[in-house]
Amino acid sequence: MKKVMAVAALLVLAFLFAGCGDNPFDPEGWQTESYQGFNLRWRVQGSDLEVELTGPSTGWVAVGFGGSYLMHDSNIIIGAVSGSGCSIRDDFGIDSNTHVSDSSLPGGQQNVYDKSGSEASGSTTITFTTPLDSGDIYDNVLAKGQNCTVLLMCGADGNDNLDSNHETIANTSITI
Ligand SMILES: [Ca+2]
Ligand SMILES: [Ca+2]
Fold first, then answer.
1. Which range of residues forms the domain containing residue 118?
2. Which of 3, 61, 109, 147 has most Cβ atoms within 10 angstroms of its Cβ?
3. What CATH code is carried by the domain that includes residue 80?
4. What does the pLDDT read at residue 20?
5. How far, in Å, from the CA of 114 to the mean position of ligand 2?
6. What pTM did the predictor assign?
């Protein structure tokens, strides 16, 4: 009986560890990158990419996929949480330091779905789904297993204006 209990305890432990996002064997397929106060989780579901971003600010947070230098040509998804509402926008970096809504660019469109967000003391989390290939030239095509540069940004605490300057910007790379 003791042996059975020990095996059961090990199974519970294994399950708990498997629940951690940075475990490559996560049965739900989530991968995690923690970098400079940001925590990015993502997984490929069919032809979509599901994303959860937590940043160290009660203002806006943003993640950019791909691009040439900093924001330039990066597909930037930016969001802010205010009260019970959240606003998440599909942007594009038109130079190294400027991003605008895809909707404001010729032929561009919003390609972010299942948007939600929450705010805790000192941090903001946004979640969304976007196609790996939206067909919009202002969203970079992604593929499972592809190495991709990633930009992580946030505004100042309490600043929910998606067009305001970033306070923090970090550059890293992930494997989709
Ligand atoms: Ca778009
Ligand atoms: Ca975009």
1. 28-175
2. 61
3. 2.60.40.1210
4. 45
5. 16
6. 0.85
